[in-house]
């Protein structure tokens, strides 16, 4: 799909400097620009590339004044970075703008569906599923019985949404995610064997939740596993049964959260963090990557390490840890000196 400089300027409320009929059909970094590509200049460190790039169109700030000849057409805007991000979002919408029901698919006769939906080939949709308006379900997806999918949500290929799951509006579930599988519930009997504890709850995703590829969220034993509004989960995260994650919390890849833990609002959790079950983590908490959390955490704490310490205590302790070989050598030298004096 091709766009002219004039069309792009219209989308971004910008001003064209150069040929308004210049066309582009792809996006590129400014240092890798080629003919037919659109790029942008926001970071002053990359200014030199504006004079050498082969891109056809470049988005720049209104304040940009070229010091030498620029070969590409410019689009001047208030904020080049934000404008390029807006254009990426627009491009993504155009790219994903599919509608209709492909064949073959299986759709239960009892489903209800809104206007302008897309259901990709080889998708299975079970009984009593409710699909909102503008929902897109890409090929090879599984939607179990009694699932609710809110307006404008997108479910990418290969996702598995188990029965009773409720998905809010404007949610994104990436490929390979599994929402609503059984929680890890087993009870030992008198023979030391483990018996499965039925998991009869569900998962609730509120509005504007993003779920990364291959992330798994288990259904509750009773009640609901709840992911609140605006939560963003990276790839390959494990959320256990009856966990609750507060609104606008972000969690990086390979983090694991054990059952019944409650995480507050606006938290930032790094990659490969392990969090035990049945604890409460407050609001605005920051947890550094590869930390292990085994206790309740108060609002606004910043933690690092395994088991995690406060960020300041961890850094102070690490200074001593780095110097342990020197400290051991000093002690050994002192002991030798003391033995020699004796």
Automatic annotation (TrEMBL):
GO terms for molecular function: UDP-3-O-[(3R)-3-hydroxyacyl]-glucosamine N-acyltransferase activity. Pfam families: Hexapep, LpxD. Keywords: Acyltransferase, Lipid A biosynthesis, Lipid biosynthesis, Lipid metabolism, Repeat, Transferase. It comes from the Bacteria. Its EC number is 2.3.1.191. It catalyses: a UDP-3-O-[(3R)-3-hydroxyacyl]-alpha-D-glucosamine + a (3R)-hydroxyacyl-[ACP] = a UDP-2-N,3-O-bis[(3R)-3-hydroxyacyl]-alpha-D-glucosamine + holo-[ACP] + H(+). Homotrimer. NCBIfam families: lipid_A_lpxD, PRK00892.1. This is UDP-3-O-acylglucosamine N-acyltransferase. It comes from Mesoflavibacter profundi.
